[in-house]
Amino acid sequence: MAGIAVIGIGVGDQALLNAEAEAAIAQADYLIGSARQLETVAAIKSGAKAIELPPLKALKAWLGQHQHSQIALLASGDPLFYGIGRWLANNADAFQLSYFPNISSIQAAVHAVGRSWQDTEVISLHGRPLQRIRARLANNRHYAVLTDSQSMPQHLALELQLAGFRDSQLTVCERLGYPDQQIRGFSVTELLNSTLEFDPLHVTLIDTAGPGGALAEFPGIADGAYSTDGEKGRGLLTKREVRIQVLSQLQTEASDICWDIGAGCGGVAIEWARWHRFSTVYAIEHHPDRLQHLHDNRLQFGVDANLKVVAGRAPDSLQELPEPKRVFIGGSDGALESILQTCWQRLQPGGVIVVSAVTESSKARLLLAAETLPGAVSSRWLEIAISRGDRLAGQLLMRPALPVTLLTLKKAPKEATGDSREAEQHP
After folding, report:
1. In this model, does residue 20 exceed pLDDT 50?
2. pTM
3. Is 298 part of any domain?
């Protein structure tokens, strides 16, 4: 089998490679990298043909035409840390891959300022929307941010101010390892008022501080933080207290495929995606106005990476989606029975469905529909009655909201015949 040696060149203007990495370059038929990367290994004797790294789509096609070649591919720092390594693992299966890691720009940056690496969370905005940082920012934390032209230090300062972290400090580490390396510290205000230009080759370290409050840091996002279609929309938004219960019943795990049917403006879907960023949430909604607010909330809370909006009606719009492990049915638009049947058929073994109902008729329909589902190992009914403090004639009173009934159904780990449900009794 032909091979690809993926070689991290470290930081600086000269690659510092061990003997094995140098040998991989010397023995290669082709040497691939950016112009800057190729320059760092120019002193290594090799008969390889040097090729500037093309776009990944073109690289995949090129690799398909050179499946019998030995290739040395240069990468920045550690190829398997926000590098090209994962892409190669998914797209170069015809090749034997070997990796030669080196110091990464993140390592170089934290060592340059004397910061413990384990206390720093890494965020990559390189080739990603700037707003994605909103899903990760929290107060009194340390971050290292990989950036591009859309996430320069001034852009990051604006995001920090919008999040309420106006007292944060940013350290910009430019051209790490080069003779003209430069490390400078800034406040949010200094950067917002600055016209400084920064070298594209940089890492930004952030220490968050300030009153915060604009971004939720714990499950239970305030209802008023969502974009909704006016008072009507707020009435249909799944309330915070109910959202927390729904998420608790779903018990989502990493890598789960999740469906939120009748997502509305995104009350549940946003929280679901925000607190489970290693899962994928598909939010299904057909109402045009609510779809627009769903898109707005997806951007506002920075969860575009793992929240996928599906415009359409269930159950028809579910056919092309991957099979779910967790499903929330918050709205059925009169098609509860067919939606529940479709979801149950598509649900992965061991999966969970949570259904909400408010009106007595919807509760009755839900009870009948649930009785026809085969292979459920447990069902759990829960009614949530919330009263919120209000004022009447200057006096405190508790104003009740409509009770919400939740039915949680768990599918057997393996398909079984008959009805094996064991209804749980809860006070």
Report:
1. yes
2. 0.89
3. yes
